[in-house]
Amino acid sequence: MTDWLQQPIAAIDDEARVAARARQGVLTKPPGSLGRLEQLAEAFAGWQGRVVPALSDIDIVVFAADHGVAARGVSAFDPAVTGQMIANFAAGGAAICVLAQRRDARLSIVDLGAVAPPANYAGVIDARIAAGTADFTESPAMQVGELEQALQAGRERVSSSAQLFIGGEMGIGNTTAAAAILAGLTGAAPAEVVGRGTGIDSGGLARKQAVVAAGLDRHRPSWDGLDGPAKALAVLRCVGGFEIAGLTGAFVAAAQAGVPVLMDGFIASVAALCAREIAPDCGRWQLFGHCSAEAGHRYLLETLDAKPLLDLGMRLGEGSGAALALGVIGDALALHAGMATFAEAGVTSGGANA
Ligand SMILES: Cc1cc2ncn([C@H]3O[C@H](COP(=O)(O)O)[C@@H](O)[C@H]3O)c2cc1C
Ligand SMILES: O=C(O)c1cccnc1
């Protein structure tokens, strides 16, 4: 059922990438002066297989689900908020709705298992697996079949015609699950990777760290001695969440389909790590939109050797940080396409004393 995870990752067009770099070198500016904007244009050229890439077809998919571990008092909000927010996404009132509209991106919402689902599913994709995961301090968060369903639900949301995929999430308690996955995969201490999420107080933070430590102690035998895909799937199943598994499936499928992925914050980046553990080459199709204020994200980005485009102190999720970074990417591609070359503009190029 998860055989598809091992299908090959799409190749990058190095010729187009090198040609895009050459174009950057002859645009009317000192070579390198647009910094990372130049690298963005080059990366998109490699992904799209053309020297002058465009970006008009963007998919933002928000995966929503609840977490049994939320019963342990690890969030500042009630799990009922997950379903309420699904309705808010459908009505256009959430942050990601505003940003998706401003960026002209397609927004889809997928319910993988809110405990209190919305009254109607107009505008929401109903892919419910169960009413939330199990509390991982008591049992594995998911059954094997549930994990497979969540990964597959993510895969099904990837369209090979899209030029960019953004995965967002909504799930009260999911910063706890994400921290547990990160600690399980990297060996980091809970204190290093557990943050305040929606804004839990100091007592709650200590409780959250203890919950993550208890979950890891309980389930470590399930992945001890494993590595690579087997370990990642075991960690995801034991302490993960449906929406994090959905993101992981989508990120692997996108890299297989040749669709680059723009990562959001802490939760999405944990799914990016899971995707890389399952299919290492899929990292070549990943770009990181921002550094979240959630404790643990900076450490995770370093682990992934990823340099986020923005660092605005945001800690929302939903895909919002990635959606904001679209502005920078759009400008990078517009500069690459629209600037004149030295020859076209009759400007003398440098080199005399370079
Ligand atoms: C109204 C509201 C909207 C949100 N949108 C994203 N999140 C974010 O906060 C949650 C994770 O934090 P924790 O682990 O502390 O529960 C996730 O749902 C995440 O997407 C929200 C949270 C709330 C309350
Ligand atoms: O960075 C994130 O993804 C994040 C941080 C806090 C709460 N929800 C999401």
TrEMBL record:
Annotated signal peptide: none
Pfam families, per the entry: DBI_PRT
EC number(s) on file: 2.4.2.21
GO BP annotations, alphabetical order: cobalamin biosynthetic process
Matches recorded under InterPro entries: Nict_dMeBzImd_PRibTrfase, Nict_dMeBzImd_PRibTrfase_bact, Nict_dMeBzImd_PRibTrfase_N, Nict_dMeBzImd_PRibTrfase_sf
UniProt keyword annotation of Glycosyltransferase present: yes
Catalyzed reaction equations: 5,6-dimethylbenzimidazole + nicotinate beta-D-ribonucleotide = alpha-ribazole 5'-phosphate + nicotinate + H(+)
Record keyword Glycosyltransferase present: yes
GO molecular function annotation: nicotinate-nucleotide-dimethylbenzimidazole phosphoribosyltransferase activity
Pathway the protein acts in: Nucleoside biosynthesis; alpha-ribazole biosynthesis; alpha-ribazole from 5,6-dimethylbenzimidazole: step 1/2
Active-site positions on this chain: 318
Keywords assigned by UniProt, alphabetized: Cobalamin biosynthesis, Glycosyltransferase, Transferase
PANTHER family: NICOTINATE-NUCLEOTIDE--DIMETHYLBENZIMIDAZOLE PHOSPHORIBOSYLTRANSFERASE
Family: Belongs to the CobT family.
Function: Catalyzes the synthesis of alpha-ribazole-5'-phosphate from nicotinate mononucleotide (NAMN) and 5,6-dimethylbenzimidazole (DMB).
Protein name: Nicotinate-nucleotide--dimethylbenzimidazole phosphoribosyltransferase
Source organism: Salinisphaera shabanensis E1L3A
